[in-house]
Amino acid sequence: MLSILTITVPIYLVIGMGYLAVRRGMFGGVELRALGKFVLNFALPALVFQALAQRPLAEVLNGPFLAAYAGGSIAVLLGAFALARFGRGKPMPDSALIGMGSAFSNSGFIGYPIVLQWLGPPAAVALALCMLVENVLLLPLTLALAESRGGNSWQAAFAQSLRRLAVNPLILAIVAGAAVAATGLALPEPLGRAIGMLATASAAVALFVIGGSLVGLSPAGMRGDVALVAVGKLVVHPLAVFACLLLLPPVDPTLRAAAVAYASMPMLSIYPILAQKYGREGFCAAALLVTTLVSFATISGVLWILSAGLGWRG
């Protein structure tokens, strides 16, 4: 529990700083959106590129791991989307965001520090695999669902989403990182340091924006949707990945433990930033805060079950 606290306490401190900065008038909505664009277009792509480029390509092409994590994540995303859309009558963008919040883990900012302390070096390999699934599969699917409005068909929206992703800095970073990993080339030291600086900035800036988004937030009418996202993310998602691991060919015990552990993390910290386009950053920030708070207990439980109960730690 102490190792988890050393990760989550700084997260809440930065969120609190963002909240106080906006509450005291130091930042406004325009400034927060500008910071959000910085994270999406520069800092986060640098983090993804760094994660892929520093490892041999063979390490990030583990088929059974990718299939299990992708299968469980997509099943949860579509299930939560369908429940929100058809069971609760939510609009398409809201339903897509609920699906994303239920299936898209904070692999880089919370998951990696926790799994690294728990499993050691294999955590980095699992991080790269999870990021491939999240950014190449889950993100395009979420955007397609969110944009499926009016007379546009699902297929047309998905094709439009793929065209946009072709020039998306995050996708370009994945392609570039994989290319560097495949060739084994080393980046010039000044360029590598610059990318490292941007990658380091991503967590703090994203969390600062989350804190600012909480100012003026009213929880009225959000409890049901927030609970749906929290249960989906912290309970259903790790269970779905666990089930897929049992059904697919065997995976190294340490990596399969990492897959379930990453799935048990709260949603990505830029969740409210991605929701800005649809005007739902307030709900997403509330869901993120509640889910991160509850994850104190659920993450500890998952790690204990995997280690003591199943012996999956390797």
Report the helical percentage: over 70%
Q: Kindly report the CATH topology.
A: Na+/H+ antiporter like fold
Order of helices and strands: HHHHHHHHHHHHH
The number of helices is: 13
Brief description of this entry?
The chain is mainly α and 314 residues long. It has 13 helices and no strands.
Describe, in plain words, how this protein is organized in 3D.
- The chain has 314 residues and is mostly helical.
- The chain has one domain: Na+/H+ antiporter like fold (Up-down Bundle).
- 78% of the residues lie in helices and 0% in strands.
- The chain has helices at residues 2-23, 29-53, 63-87, 92-103, 107-119, 122-147, 154-165, 169-183, 189-213, 223-247, 253-263, 271-274, 281-309.
- Helix 4 (92-103) crosses helix 10, helix 5 (107-119) packs antiparallel against helix 11 and helix 10 (223-247) packs antiparallel against helix 11.
- The longest helix has 29 residues, at 281-309.
- The two termini are 20 Å apart.
- 49% of the residues are buried.
Map the helices and strands:
Layout: H1 2-23, H2 29-53, H3 63-87, H4 92-103, H5 107-119, H6 122-147, H7 154-165, H8 169-183, H9 189-213, H10 223-247, H11 253-263, H12 271-274, H13 281-309
Helix pairs in contact: 1-5, 1-9, 2-8, 2-9, 3-4, 3-6, 3-10, 3-11, 4-6, 4-10, 5-6, 5-11, 6-7, 6-11, 10-11, 10-13
